[in-house]
UniProtKB/TrEMBL annotation:
Protein's name according to its UniProt entry: J domain-containing protein
Sample GO molecular function, one term: protein-folding chaperone binding
Gene3D superfamilies: DnaJ domain
Keywords: Chaperone, Membrane, Transmembrane, Transmembrane helix
InterPro entries: DnaJ_domain, DnaJ_domain_CS, Hsp70_co-chaperone_J-domain, J_dom_sf
Transmembrane segments: 192-213
Ranges of residues in domain J: 5-70
UniProt xrefs under Pfam families: DnaJ
PROSITE patterns documented for this protein: DNAJ_1, DNAJ_2
CDD domains: DnaJ
Biological-process GO terms, alphabetical: ERAD pathway
Length: 217
């Protein structure tokens, strides 16, 4: 099982002080707290990770033990990544699970930052190295397909960030690269449609109001 990087979860340096840990936790807790994201499963999951990271890093003894484990964990992974359980298949399965979670959520209420964070965690620099070393092309296909499905609720900027990582997974596979390109094209078109809907709706409302006023005079 992959060791969670609590420093990345809180967005701080491993050299961060206790005050910096507290500030990072407060900032993220305000954003992802379940009370502010009722019914948003993604935000709830991310809040749990933030709380778990904070509880570990704010306690001096727990933090020291975690730092020790983290050091040897990454050292071990760099030497023998496949023996530690992180494989392209594992990443693909995690991506499928994430897609299933996203599919169950209300797209209009899903927390985009939390979803992007989860995708970036699965497509981290280390995980991308594992995928690129893999000799299992089907796993790469599954990662790309299910990651793209996860981007459906995301805006164009966030989708671009994910697609940039997925291009590394696709490598020289022209079909996967085309699929990534098509996803970005569709997202751009959707953004243009969304931008035109609001002005059209406002114009329609103004027209209705004008007609009502004209009739009642």
């Amino acid at each position: 099982m992959a060791l969670k990087d609590y420093y990345k979860i809180l967005g701080i340096s491993p050299a961060a002080s206790a005050d910096e840990v507290k500030k990072a936790y407060r900032r993220l807790a305000l954003r992802y707290h379940p009370d502010k994201n009722t019914g948003n499963h993604m935000a709830e999951l991310h809040f749990r990770e933030v709380k778990e990271a904070y509880d570990t890093l704010i306690d001096a003894a727990k933090r020291e033990a975690y730092n020790y484990e983290r050091f040897y964990h990454y050292r071990f992974l760099n030497e023998r990544p496949m023996e530690h359980g992180i494989t392209a298949d594992w990443i693909a399965r995690q991506m499928i699970t994430l897609e299933e979670t996203v599919h169950r959520q209300d797209f209009f209420r899903i927390h985009h930052d939390a979803l992007l964070f989860q995708l970036q965690q699965l497509l981290s620099e280390y995980n991308l190295e594992v995928v690129q070393r893999s000799e299992n092309p089907q796993a790469n296909v599954n990662i790309v397909i299910h990651a793209l499905a996860c981007t459906r609720p995301l805006n164009l900027a966030y989708t671009r960030a994910v697609c940039a990582l997925l291009q590394q997974v696709a490598g020289t596979d022209t079909l996967l690269l085309q699929r990534i390109k098509d996803t970005l094209k569709q997202k751009k078109q959707q953004q243009l449609i969304n931008r035109s809907i609001l002005p059209a709706a406002v114009l329609a409302v103004l027209l209705i109001l004008w007609l009502i006023i004209s009739v009642t005079r």
